[in-house]
Amino acid sequence: MDQQWLNTYREEIGGFSNTIHSFAQGEIARKDYKGISGGFGSYAQRDAAKHMLRLRLPGGRVTPERLHFMAQAVQQYHVPFLKLTTCEAIQMHDLTPDEVPAIMEAAIPCGIITRGGGGDNPRNIQASPLTGVQPGEAFDVMPWAEAATEYLLSICRDIHMPRKLKVAFCNGVDDCVHTAFRDMGFVAQPDGTFKLYIAGGLGGGWRMGILAAESLPAEDVLYYIRGMITTFCQHGNYQNRAKARTRFMQETLGPDKLRRVFLENVAAAKADESLKLHLTPAAITKTGTGTLDDPRAIAQKQPGLYAVAYHPIGGRLIPEKLVQLDNLLSTIPGCECRVAPNETLYIINLTADEAAAVLDATADGAKTLFETSVACIGASICQQGVRDSQSVLQRAVQAVREANIPDGALPKVCISGCTSSCSGHQAAAIGFQGTVKAVPGGKPAPAFAPLIAVPDRPAIIISGLRHDNGELGAFLDLVKMGGASIPVRSMVTPTSKGWTLANLLLELNTEHETVQGGNA
């Protein structure tokens, strides 16, 4: 960010310091305070005397400078724990009103800006966590994630959107950032362009994004982001926050009109030549020798280099571990960390010997597939939470360890404390959503509602039969004559062709149950 923007930001932090202290003294209602603090990436916790601060990390990138800052901050301010988030940010918890603005200010020199980390703002831009080092990727998307961040921060004070905007960049091989479930999802293509999905999202009224562009020139990314902001401000719902995310424009406009209006706004945005990007991913010149065989060590596309995966249970990172990693990684040239949307921390650009040292330092993390399960921060801390997802996961992991259940016997699960899907439970193979359950003759009881990604219904995948000459119809008639009942069917469309089978079946069954009144 330029110096003028940063000077204004520092002034805003000073104003926010007065606001957080007024809230602490009871002069501002919790709801009103939330509307202010979210724009600075901070929220009061369920215990209103304690606060969370969300550190924006474009693309989940934790440079050595950012890691060192966080390691110093957790010691100086005695931060009890940190949380890796599914939006590739890092949250500091249990902070005092004095500590929040102090950390905001101290984070600026290493490039961590908390502005817009919450509220109705463009949120942390996500990227495939191993972009730049992952074998088979189309290209490194990190420069575009960082450029999009800079642009959105530069205009965040000037725009007023109905709700938040989430943007993700996929490197073409690892879509753990769920591009089809974002307000904007860019997918890198081998020819150097992007495929773009828009108006998707998890939570209430979840929707898969619609395909808006097949081969978007990489230099034009900011025009498309500007076009989406304009479309959202024009057609988003400012009256009903429950219907205010971009995905609801699929209902109000319809997918085809939404796509048309969006592309018209992109064309209008191109009148501003200054938004054209000319980016080149940085080359990794480090080399390594030796080999390493460990399930947490991932061979990079750079010969002789490895990435190490570290998954603290529940994404909860203790300060001592952060300090230990900072001390170790400061001795390893060229390495850095990446926060992944599954709450894993990757340490990249390591030789075999360096990776072995990092594996040893992170041996306290998840050791089985089930232990890599994801949980949001939970109701003990989050104001919005209904159930304590963190506690449930921690106890489940402990119970599985005590029972000596072998790795692979249990799947990875995602647990959200409410409908907001902060763990991504709606896109998981098995997800749990915090709720309450009616109990005959008694008070409603705490509960978690399970969500299985592939419903227990038969599905047939048909390929190679033509519809126009009657082949497909004749085949389906034969299936019906054989006594099979297939109530849900779909043709592959431009919108759905990039979906996984699980997401396709979820969407089809949701539509079918709506049509049938829930009696399908």
Description:
It is a single chain. This protein is an alpha+beta fold and 520 residues long. Helices cover 31% and strands 16% of the residues. It has helices at 3-24, 30-37, 64-76, 99-107, 142-155, 221-235, 249-252, 255-269, 319-329, 352-361, 389-402, 471-481, 501-515; strands spanning 42-44, 51-55, 61-62, 82-84, 90-95, 126-127, 167-170, 184-188, 193-198, 210-217, 297-299, 306-310, 316-317, 336-339, 345-350, 374-375, 414-416, 430-437, 445-452. The strands form 4 sheets. Strands 1-2-5-4-13 form a 5-stranded antiparallel sheet. The chain has a 5-stranded antiparallel sheet with strand order 3-14-15-12-11. The protein is globular, with a radius of gyration of 24 Å.
